[in-house]
Amino acid sequence: MISKFRIDLLFVLTGFLLFLIEYFSYSSSLDVALHDTYFVVDRFYVGFMLFIPFSFLGLCYYVFERINKPLKRSLGVIHYLITAITVLFFAIGPLFWGVERQRSSQLTLLGIAVMISTILFLVAQAVFFINILLSIFRKPSSAN
Questions:
Q1: What would the pLDDT profile of 104-115 be if each residue is shown by its tens digit?
Q2: Could you tell me the pTM of the whole model?
Q3: DSSP annotation of 97
Q4: Using alpha carbons only, how large is the chain's radius of gyration in Å?
Q5: pLDDT for 132 beyond 80
Q6: In whole angstroms, what is the distance from residue 135 CA to residue 68 CA?
Q7: For residue range 23-68, what is the model confidence (pLDDT) as tens digits?
């Protein structure tokens, strides 16, 4: 089913969906403790910061299509699926985790899940970079 859609539109629509999910989530803010500083970020900005990179990735796929150096579709689908699933894990996960009520052993499992998700996200971006390199250095096929 995913093969019927354009990858650039999938990225933009997913970014918009993430923006809506974050905007209408149960909490009005995101609390982040970083070193000795405590940040409180409104959910609107969290959703907007998720929308920007997804739109940028969609723009990259669109631009490569327009300059007649399209990226490989199979690698694009892999990139989209892994990126979307890992970011959805981070965006929707806190709604179901209830971290403040869990014990330390469950937090360890959560930490492992976050680490695996982060590694998968980085692998997806490496796939995107490889896709760009393959597209740039691909010789144009001669159409007879």
A1: 555 567 777 778
A2: 0.77
A3: H
A4: 18
A5: yes
A6: 10
A7: 777 666 666 666 777 777 777 777 788 889 999 999 999 999 898 8
Looking only at the bridges linking them, the beta strands covering 29-34 and 37-42 are: antiparallel
Other residues' Cβ atoms within 10 Å of the Cβ of residue 101: 7
Count of C-beta atoms within a 10 Å radius of residue 45: 13
- 46 near 22, Cβ under 8 Å? yes
What does each C-alpha distance from 136 to 31, 73, 77, 121 come to in angstroms? 42, 14, 18, 23
Query: What is the 3-state secondary structure of 43-81?
Result: HHHHHHHHHHHHHHHHHHHHHHHHCCCCCCHHHHHHHHH
Q: What percent of the chain clears pLDDT 70, i.e. is strictly above it?
A: 74
Helix (H, G, I), strand (E, B) or coil at 141: coil
Instruction: Report which residue type is found at 76.
Output: G
Contacts of 44 (CB under 8 A, 6+ apart): 22, 23
